[in-house]
Specification:
33% of the residues lie in helices and 23% in strands. By secondary structure, it is α+β, with helices and mostly antiparallel strands.
Length: 107
């Protein structure tokens, strides 16, 4: 992912969707500096390869608020977005008929 940022000369990415059928561990157990430049991330987590809790902790360490929907984990990086954008994102999550339980402390 870092190589793509360099190649494309991106400063930030608005939405990163990761659905790599169990290879999440390869991304999240390697260099994850791309998270400091990612506003919203959606990861389909296969718990048999990496613990959802491990991914949540990594995301939280980079300033994300984390929501879980079955296999899908969504993180919103509150250090990179305005509260208005967060409110819109939060409303969209509920508009899609998901029931989200924020996994954060004190934001």
């Amino acid at each position: 992912i870092e190589e793509i940022f360099i190649e494309k000369k991106w400063d930030f990415i608005d939405l990163l969707k990761i659905d790599i059928e169990g290879a999440e561990a390869e991304i999240f157990k390697s260099e994850v500096n791309f998270l400091s430049k990612t506003r919203v991330i959606a990861v389909e987590v296969h718990d048999e390869f990496i613990s959802r809790i491990e991914i949540e902790l990594i995301l939280k360490n980079y300033g994300f608020i984390v929501f879980n929907f079955s296999e899908l984990t969504i993180g919103v990086n509150i250090s990179l977005i305005s509260w208005k954008y967060f409110e819109i994102t939060y409303e969209l999550i509920f508009a899609l008929d998901f029931i989200a339980k924020p996994m954060y402390d004190g934001y």
